[in-house]
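[scheduler] slot 2 assigned
[scheduler] job type: sequence-to-structure, two independent chains
[scheduler] chain ordering preserved from manifest
[runner] begin chain α
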Amino acid sequence: MLQLSELRIAIIGLGYVGLPLAVEFGKQVPVVGFDIHQKRIDELKNGQDHTLEVSPDELVEACHLSYSANLEELKDCNFFIVTVPTPIDDFKQPDLTPLVKASQSIAQVLKKGDVVVYESTVYPGATEEVCIPVLEQISDLTFNQDFYVGYSPERINPGDKLHRVTNILKITSGSTPEVADFVDQVYNLIIEAGTHKAPSIKVAEAAKVIENTQRDVNIALINELAVIFNKMGIDTEAVLQAAGTKWNFLPFRPGLVGGHCIGVDPYYLTHKAQSIGYHPEIILAGRRLNDGMGVYVVTQLVKGMVKKKIQVEGAKVLVLGLSFKENCPDIRNTRIIDIVKELEEYHIDVDVCDPWVDATEAHHEYGITLVDTPSEGIYDAVILAVAHEQFKAMGVDQIRALGKANHVLYDLKYVLTQSESDLRL
């Protein structure tokens, strides 16, 4: 069994999850940060992180961290941590391709005594059913005899500068009791908040996937309440503020549910449930409701425009924000795109502005050409879709100035008061 003094870590995938982890470990032990994109490696070697999760100073502090896109440079590593994305496909099914490819790569350099830990969100059983067979087949090594596996789900919250990798309690697990102890010891090198050692890999996998499923279902409930209250002419935020005076009322808010976690993870659980013969009712109902909120928002906007006698077809609408959450450049699975596409179905001319998002990435992923500085007085409607600090700082007068004399202002994020906006969720 490995000893902490022998530890040489490889982090596979240097995105929102992998890079902060690599930096923290790199302050203490030898770490190779591996990514298949040479552009990402070059960027990090130059001391920059386009995800904005790690500052240039923090990159410098990780004095034991090196970067590479060359698999050969992982041969001396003995503790591999996989942090690649686990998205869904167009049919809402888990896409384990990145996970399988990462396992294939590791298997080429895997040696006796090595440990592989997965952090990517999966359904319960995926590590043992999908990943381990790949490692065994390509490496020609035997699981739990020649090499070992653990699972420690990521809990990174993109854009959150308060909850960082070191101060978020970490779940750990291993394929044997001894490995579980060792994996736990490794993470305790950097996790100041401590760890929770799960009794099995499947328990750790299940714990991760239900964290975001729970949030998804709760947001779906609030979204449904918002639809009901809107029909009744009641301000949803006012209702939630009143209900929130009770000590045990949960502070969820309505909105679009996107990103790489909440809008994705439930489909991993429902996929597994259906494969064992159970059709999940509540989880899928919540997903359907949340996935339909973009269309609902546009329907409400169009009704608001009609009431103000604004010609819908050919109208010009500005969407403020494209990333899936505030103060973050991440556009993975952003549901703002649902609003844009639905507006275009009405033959509306749509401009999108987001100071946090890389324009090249927005065009590559969604075919959207971002507007740097929206012109004043030209929009029939403005949708405040993401609560970026820049938009909050504008205030209602500056936002209103973007619209024509007669326009609709839709505030999705409760940045403005009820009296300042025309529509709110």
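[runner] end chain α
[runner] begin chain β
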Amino acid sequence: MKRVLAIWVFSLLCFLQLSAQEEFVPPDSKLITKIPFFQLSGGIIILKAQLDGFTDSLNFVLDTGSGGISLDSTTVEKLKIPIALSDKTIRGIAGVKKVSFAYNHTLQMPGIEVKNLDFHINNYELLTSVYGVRIDGIIGYSFLRRYIVHLDFDKRIMEVHTPGRFKYPKGGQLLKPNFSTLPLLQAHVEDSKSFLNRFIFDTGAGLCFLLSRDYVDDSAVFKSKRKFYPTQAEGLGGKKKMEIAVMKSVKIGNYKFKKVPVHIFEDDFNVTNYPILGGLMGNDLLRRFNITLNYPEQTIHIKPNNHFTDAFDYSYTGLGIYLVDGQIKVIDIIEGSPGDKAGFKTEDIIFSIENNASNNIQAYKNLFQNSLGKIKVVVLRNNVPLMLNMNVKDIRR
């Protein structure tokens, strides 16, 4: 009897050991489609898509900093899409607002149809004016949570895969952010001191790094003699005054960047939930990696691409230029800035920069960003051409 019991116990232990080696394995991820994208200044990603049965091709920003998916109010009006009032609010760097919704719509891109999407409605007229390209909406969490999305900035292709076991590209690094509706990733920032904090991983932000003023003041992260320049940026709610400086280094995972342009803002609407977050990392930094966004597994894989060593934008003009009624106009001028000293006036129409008369706001912004030192700008003021000489400031000095 004892021998039988011993054999039974031994058999049970063997079974338990073998059972412990078994696990349910999810199916392999499968490629659904490859979708081309183009980029605007600051690395902003634009995807072409259609809504429901409408034939119009719409422009959407791919934005990991968006907790949903949205449509421009003008686009909604043009397509006569029914909307419903709601009590929900959205929050951005320049405001908080209550939003309406367009429920249960379908987004179509080459090779994929995404159903049952609830779009909140916002006004993107300012972004359209900033980029000179019609912005019809923003694709964020509502889309990204359903798939594994790979962004190849070398080929400018977005791959969409089903959830499952995914084979990441060789090399690079797999990161594990905290996830809410937004990915919150750790990074080291260093100037006078080095700090490890979490930041929003934000492909929809057309800058390198953004820190809240509370974080900057409390941490004393910047050297006392660090020079700050007044500037502004555009976001939800309108324009936001900021400052810009150069930080000694920023490290994401194993990858370190030196002399990184950093914007600092008063977080009046608590976007960063300070002290939980220090700010956000934007796509002018993130575009230097090919990125795999695996929301179902709550991981992000980054691998340096051909843009990894691209020079940062250190130019400073103090000018806010916008596309208005087909003309590129100077709308904002910061007092004491290079643009102010050069004699620019609000409502000046930019005719050419360094002999480039393309009337393309993206081309003009690139010229401002890549022309440190003296440049010649022809403006039309009261329909009279005027040559202005501007000395574009290098914020590293």
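[runner] end chain β
[qc] chain β: The CA atoms of residues 200 and 331 lie 30 Å apart.
[scheduler] slot 2 released
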